[in-house]
Design a protein that fits this description.
Elements (H helix, E strand, L loop, with lengths): L3 E6 L7 H4 L8 E6 L4 H11 L4 E2 L3 H7 L23 E4 L14 E5 L9 H9 L7 E5 L20 E4 L6 H7 L4 E3 L5 H4 L5 E3 L9
Parallel strand pairs: 1-2, 1-3, 5-6, 5-8, 6-7
Antiparallel strand pairs: 4-8, 4-9
């Protein structure tokens, strides 16, 4: 019996690289893999065109497809990307945000859509630190390049949450560095942080070994 041919869409994580470079095979499967510039582009190709036989799909994106008249996907409990999401919150240090509670009353950028996978931190901030989402102003946009609003899934948010789109031509990383937003939630690290801009930092500092 010949192997089953599957076209698989996923991002090129370190934990999946052995599959994508062919050094590890999947028994009984003739697999081809495709990635994209950012992982949400994979989600869009799957949701809009059903382009893959199997695809990585962010949990919050998948849950929104359940609002479709005929939900098209079956979710499998496979997690190719596991991150410590404390690291996904970045702040402009001039705002004097030193602890989660300081986010109350601040303007927070969020990548792609309100409540993206790393953005569920807004709920954790509420549960663990008492910062309710309606205490912040939310700006949605692209991280290091301007990005049109995501429109391939439903985008609900509570009526009492202030959610607006980044101004045309603006990107959240630059807005954070310039102090146009106070904080940013993003699974990907903005370029200003990678470039060690002095006025940006993680809200929860990186762990440093004492050894």
């Amino acid at each position: 019996m010949s192997d089953i041919r599957l076209k698989i869409g996923l991002w090129n994580y370190d934990c999946t690289r052995a599959l994508t470079d062919g050094s590890v095979k999947i028994d009984g499967i003739d697999a081809s893999f495709e990635s994209a510039r950012i992982v949400s582009e994979i989600f869009e190709r799957m949701i809009r065109q059903r382009e893959f036989d199997v695809s990585e799909l962010g949990l919050t994106y998948y849950l929104r497809t359940l609002d479709f008249d005929d939900p098209p996907f079956i979710a499998l409990p496979v997690f190719p990307n596991r991150c410590f999401r404390h690291s996904a919150i970045f702040v402009n240090t001039s705002t004097k945000i030193e602890k989660p509670q300081d986010l109350a009353g601040k303007t927070v950028g969020e990548f792609a859509l309100y409540g993206h996978d790393a953005g569920v931190w807004s709920n954790i901030l509420s549960d663990e630190y008492g910062v309710e989402p309606n205490q912040c102003r939310w700006i949605i946009g692209g991280l290091d390049w301007p990005m049109a609003p995501i429109n391939f899934i439903p985008l609900p948010h509570p009526a009492n949450i202030d959610v607006t789109l980044a101004p045309e031509g603006k990107e959240l990383g630059e807005m954070l560095e310039a102090g146009e937003i106070d904080a940013l939630i993003s699974a990907d690290v903005p370029k200003c942080v990678l470039n060690r801009a002095p006025q940006v930092a993680r809200l929860f500092p990186d762990y440093k070994s004492v050894c």
